[in-house]
Amino acid sequence: xxxxxxxxxxxxxxxxxxxxxxxxxxxxxxxxxxxxxxxxxxxxxxxxxxxxxxxxxxxxxxxxxxxxxxxxxxxxxxxxxxxxxxxxxxxxxxxxxxxxxxxxxxxxxxxxxxxxxxxxxxxxxxxxxxxxxxxxxxxxxxxxxxxxxxxxxxxxxxxxxxxxxxxxxxxxxxxxxxxxxxxxxxxxxxxxxxxxxxxxxxxxxxxxxxxxxxxxxxxxxxxxxxxxxxxxxxxxxxxxxxxxxxxxxxxxxxxxxxxxxxxxxxxxxxxxxxxxxxxxxxxxxxxxxxxxxxxxxxxxxxxxxxxxxxxxxxxxxxxxxxxxxxxxxxxxxxxxxxxxxxxxxxxxxxxxxxxxxxxxxxxxxxxxxxxxxxxxxxxxxxxxxxxxxxxxxxxxxxxxxxxxxxxxxxxxxxxxxxxxxxxxxxxxxxxxxxxxxxxxxxxxxxxxxxxxxxxxxxxxxxxxxxxxxxxxxxxxxxxxxxxxxxxx
Length: 488
Ligand code: PA5
Description:
Elements: E1 27-29, H1 31-34, H2 41-65, H3 83-94, H4 99-113, E2 116-120, H5 127-136, E3 154-158, H6 164-180, E4 189-195, H7 201-217, H8 222-225, E5 226-230, H9 235-243, E6 249-250, H10 264-272, H11 277-293, H12 300-315, E7 319-325, H13 330-344, E8 352-358, H14 366-371, E9 376-382, H15 411-428, E10 433-437, H16 443-464, H17 475-485
Parallel strand pairs: 2-3, 2-4, 4-5, 5-6, 7-8, 7-9, 9-10
Antiparallel strand pairs: 1-10
Residues 122-125, 195-197, 200, 203, 256-258, 342, 471 line the site of 5-phosphoarabinonic acid.
């Protein structure tokens, strides 16, 4: 097929389209797994899970009351639960002066100023935006021309590792772009520097390098081209004040790093990338409402936790495989890996998350899932219909590959056959699978998914008596690294 015949233009989703502000809820189908649990097992968990839900929701009131907390309940970063609803209410009441409007304005300003955007951050200050970018933007985004990107910049991530070569390669690419287009938007780079504590070494070191680059290459514009997103205090906050950056966004105190994807941490880069941040928030708010009200047997959060917990306790399945069907969801899986590991990997307990992308990983991990150790619960994450009109297998006069029998069959149809075939293969040998179905790859659906998995992680923590907030174990490596470097 000629390139001109491909529906290239439709790869870019429209800006702020009111039509996709809402949509159907995601659904959870654990039927195949339930056949492997003893009858009535989930119903037996109902009371404990409803109590865990109440505790999760009561935490919000406790956190908002500002009352001192006993040591075993600290930290309590429950602010993410009602945050999307609060932002939408703020938008409704305060319009242009609301936080959502200010994030959109800042995102648009970055679009107008620069054609390359570097987002710096690590852990919770990075993975959520990467998940959104990969899920909602085409894989070849950075290769598209500015018009096809509807004026949104190319996007790069750094500060999530210490990798001299990689950082130099990116700086050198951006430098070449600047040299080729001096004084033009096409040559300019903007930087969003994200760190809640403001002191994490990896993004701080990267920020020095990218800040120097911006100051040298785009002298006079750095106050507009650099936007910090940080906590109310800390080194990045002080630096932002000293530098006088035009926009600085806050990460609220009661929202922990890996629960912060729907704060400025994710929303500012998302707005700059032209995503519909209102729909993201609406999706999360709709899911929270469902979590609060839906009865146990229809509640996607409670059902998901019940199935994961029952298989871990009854069958020792402490490896949770998130099996993503479609490359666009891999980074969502990596975001969830972090969420589950840092939240529940404590006290020598907590399931191990693992993300796979199929059908790619059927040709690697699939062997182990079919015949290896019986320690895995597989949750299929299904993205819904493709964003573009489906491709089909073409007929050809040379049929030595015997594919003319599939002529006209679409790729989604082939993928469906792979999904059904894989589930059947696992069922045949008593390996549990469940399906988590998105209604489509939209901002609204992704907002729901983020909120669902964050709520599920907290509910499970409350169920098993592990504080899901905080990550004391991560501090040990930081202390040692800083001591090795002689840092004060
Ligand atoms: O979940 C968390 O809190 C962590 O993963 C943090 O997001 C990560 O360590 C980065 O921290 P900061 O944003 O303070 O640089």
